[in-house]
Amino acid sequence: MNVTLENDNLLVKIKSKGAEVFSVIGKGTHLEYMWSGDPAFWGKTSPVLFPIVGTLKGDTFLYKNKKYNLTRHGFARDLEFEITESGRDRVVFTLDSTPLSLQKYPFKFRLKIKYTLQESFLYVYYILENIGNEEMYFSIGGHPAFKVPLVDGTHYTDHYLVFNKIETAPRWPISTEGLIESNPVRFLHKTNKINLNSTLFQHDALVLKHLQSDIVSIKSTAHSHGLDFHFEEFPFLGIWAANNADFVCIEPWCGIADNVTHDQELISKEGIEKIETGRSWSRIWKVKFY
Description:
CATH class: Mainly Beta
Shape: globular
Strand content: over 45%
Order of helices and strands: EEEEEEEEHEEEEEEEEEEEEEE
Largest sheet: 9 strands, antiparallel
Number of helices: 1
CATH architecture: Distorted Sandwich
Helix content: under 10%
Number of strands: 22
Oligomer: single chain
Strand order of the largest sheet: 7-8-9-10-22-18-17-14-15
Distance between the termini: 28 Å
């Protein structure tokens, strides 16, 4: 089932499967901002990453001396969410744990993904409730893919990313198994700009940790359109595109793939989040389109 949200500035479409945004059209700009989801390159558009972000070592984690298997980015992106609230410019999708999910991830949860429109902003809320009787450990993140080039007749290399603060920050390489290497590589040095080109992601995603910035924008030297992506509440940021595909993903993460040296224990995993029983947890990211 698809849901359409609308206000004076934006027209947004979201699938109930995975609670996944697949279209954002600017009413004033007449532009589509989201990647098409062409399966020849990458068939997703904005998956929700839960209850893990990235890859586990051996696709396995250990909790209370028991092994559990989860594939890359977890299972939420492939499941049907229930629509529990809706309006012209807002919707809430809800996913509850099930006996099947408990076989892969031993925590009882209620995950709500809330989308709201305010002027030219799309707000995305992750609201997670621990409805079990023990502490819950998890990671969660976004993976939205934005169309680049944004305007017909322009080129991928006309576009660039710009942070709202000058950064000196390395990137953390990803191994062939999808794990985070132990040693970072020099990347950003007294700059706030990344030029987009076909070789930027040849070694998988750019993984950045604990940046000074909390906004990254997609802009172009060929036109004045773009977007501002706000990720204040997320300590990790991934940036990725498939080879020769016309998009770039900006990925806000609370959590990260296992390090190559990780012992697979869930509670000691880098970036792991925790909720006490009966409590809830929330984060927001938002995008301004122009």
